[in-house]
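for the record, two folds in this file. i put them one after another cuz i was lazy. first one right below, seq on top, structure tokens after. the second one comes after a little note so u can tell where it starts
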Amino acid sequence: MFLADVVGTVVASVKDSGLTARTLLVIQPIAASGKPVGASLVAIDSVGVGVGERVIYVRGKEASFPFLPEQVPADASIVGKVDAIEHRPGETT
């Protein structure tokens, strides 16, 4: 699992039928410290979050698990909303 900030939305009028009625969001991966790491990406929202929220996401095969038994073509899915991060000084991120 990884941390990210939701930074935008994606509107697609034509998409795979497995994505029908699914919300697509642009997320920016972050370190535990809150600093951006890497490029932003598109993820399917499985929990009902929005722009400006901090989330937990998964990648790869596990990205389709929140939607089982439906088959959803996903490489990244948001699986949780972050309420707080406790980052202890001296720990690496």
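(here's the note) second protein begins now
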Amino acid sequence: MSNTISKTANDESIQALLTAAVEYAQSQGADACEVAASNDKGFSVTARLGEVETLEQHNQRSMGVTVYHGHAKGSATTNIVSLDAINRAIDSALEIARFTTEDKCAGLADEQCMAYGYPQLDLEHPWPIDTDTALEKAILCEQAARDDQRIVNSEGASVSSITTEMCYANSHGFVGEYRGTRHSISCSVIAGDENGMQRDYWYTLDRNANHLEEVESVGSRARERAVRRLSSRGLKTCSVPILFEPMLARTLIGHLFSAISGGALYREASFLLDSLGKKILPEWLTIKEDPHLPGALGSVPFDNEGVRTQARNIVENGVLQGYLLSSYSACKLGMQTTGNAGGVHNIRMTHSDKSQRDLLQEMGTGLLVTELIGHGVNTVTGDYSRGAAGFWVENGELQYPVQEITIAGNLAEMFQKISAVGNDTDTRGNVQCGSILVENMTIAGNS
């Protein structure tokens, strides 16, 4: 099998369209130009209380053009996929560029960084399912979720299937295109007892529908998670270890990425300024970006600027090895783009061989966090304060559910105090990690 992406007639047509648009921009006086097109096609259905609630067909197209007069930039968008529409957008972008102040860092990524000969990553796996069958699956999922008298209401179960086509071209002569699928099943229900109501959910997500959890399993997990939160209590203010379950643990890593992103760094709006080559995590912890994993949710052959993506250790043995840079932020910092225009791609991290239950035993007394509320994170200072819910733990065992508390700390200290990462890796996303145990944080409770 070839390691480069093969072209179909459709590839040729969209690539030819974007190439013609770049040529038109140059003929109208643009010194440089880039054009990006995307098309999301598919459907989503939702069933609630055994009936159809929504049925949506998706066919969302968009195109964006950016032109440069020297270092003056103009951009415009259109949702009409035709050469005439793109050319009109280019005319608008050229007009904008004439009145834009020059920025020495505005421009295309360097030509030598382009992803010529980009790899085939096995991202497209169509799901041969019609909307009637999808609706049946949604109904079965919700039925499984409501199979308990303590489930008093439902927010519904959904089944969706989306195919995304991405194409990018620029005046370096680079043209690239890839397609990928995302299929999902989700369910959210509300449990109730004499002490009130609690909501929770579950979902499964993959590029290949054969890898999705069974619909009954998704519904059962949603039900179990909602029911176990009934009769939640408050807590007294204290300082204890905190265990973040995998769905929430990835948000901690997301805050790290926000702090080492080029935009935050060149604006000097990060608590991790000048941290390159410094220890920011425990020495046993390595975080790797691997954009070319076949079939993975975060895989891409090139970034939003056509720059080649490649595997690297962002953090190695606790030491920060590199930032997350686009060509613009790299220029601002006097560095080289890292192929992260648009974000990170397939993040994995080293972990122990311990399960979540093992980590609870290791924690002894503390809090298992299963929900975070609000946005109390300051990337400039690293201050972290968020509403939370979860389970109080004593002697390594769950004691009772808790709610209406706030957990607080400072991210720089929290990262250093990560004592373990579990083997319960959540693969349903671009950032994959297991439960994360932080040695000590403050819980603000009701007294």
